[in-house]
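Data deposition worksheet. Section B asks for the primary sequence of the deposited chain exactly as it was used as input, without tags or linkers unless they were present during the calculation. Section C holds the resulting structure in token form. Section D is free text for depositor observations; keep each observation to a single sentence. Incomplete worksheets are returned to the depositor.
Section A, Depositor: J.P.
Section B:
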Amino acid sequence: MDELKNDISNFYTFLTTYSGKQKKQLSLLSDSWADFEQWRTMAKAHIFELLNYFPEPAPLDAKVLNVIEKNEFIQEEIEFNTAKNVRVKGTLLIPKGNGETFPAIIGIHDHGGFYYLGREKIIAQEEESDILKNFKKTYYGGRSWANEMVRKGYIVLSIDGFYFGSRKLDINHLTDETLESCPYKLNGLAPGTEEYIHTYNKMCGYFEALLVKHIFISGTTWPGILFHDDRACVDYLYTRKEVDIKRIGCCGLSIGGFRAAHLAALDSRISCTVVAGWMTSYHSLQWNRLRDHTYMIYIPNLTASLDLPDVVSLAAPNPLFIQQCSKDHLFHLDGMYEANSQIEKIYQRLGHSEKFKSQFYNNPHEFNLQMQEDAFSWFDQWMK
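Section C:
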């Protein structure tokens, strides 16, 4: 194997040389920052500016669409506004109690190339298709972890992320030219069948590149949309009498972990976080690890001033647990170790080393049963 080969050939040296000259002056670990709160204020403002999603606000106007009483908890199907003309659907799981309040977790679903469903990937359904069961077996040890959390005494809220589930691509309104350009065809496939869902997911993956062009030309960013909706979840939890608003955490796998990291960083109301399978230094991705990443993660110009460990450190000194998968094909090990080391240094500087934990698991990209149990223990330690 030619060690000089990489995913972008002769352009690699040009781009890495350019990025290497950028000093990342907004990093807390640079010599110019002595005051943490001053840094937090400036870094947050800079990130919001780069996310560039400032939709017209609207009241939540939350509605409960359906209530299902289970043996141990109540399940509510809900919807609320995250902005004017933006309405999202979600599921709220509430432990049964006599007027008491509970800690709450915002459960953020993964990407996984599975666009057809959203929150269903982490919340148990009355009837689950084989494709959903197999997906959960691959990435979640066969468990609907949100249901496990509610059984442990946590309220759990999960919404469909932009481009997933109830907010997925409506192929009926694509132009004929656009459909013809796509190598994946749904013609003759029965909606809802396994073959249909597989093909639909491939179509959505193909159209990500086109949609992100439209998002950028509209003057905003994909992460900006996702992160705004996640912060609106906190707004919603604040309206629920069952929630102890001083104990709200977040957790997710893959892009769910990426979103959890940013939710904790950008919203001080999040008191405890678990990031599973998404923490690295950005520069370590450039050799050959960007090929399998979604367009949903790109914040233009962020890496000129901040790395991902800098961003998640905005959550400090609140408890933060980073779960890394040592066989994860999405990241290089050195990038994952580097990220953990940088975050650890910041928690040490603040005198709160005990509130940061990182752990490697000898498995591929997943949130398996052991990882889940460790995550639950982390939340129990800091939120109960």
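Section D:
The chain has a mean pLDDT of 96.
The two ends are 52 Å apart (CA to CA).
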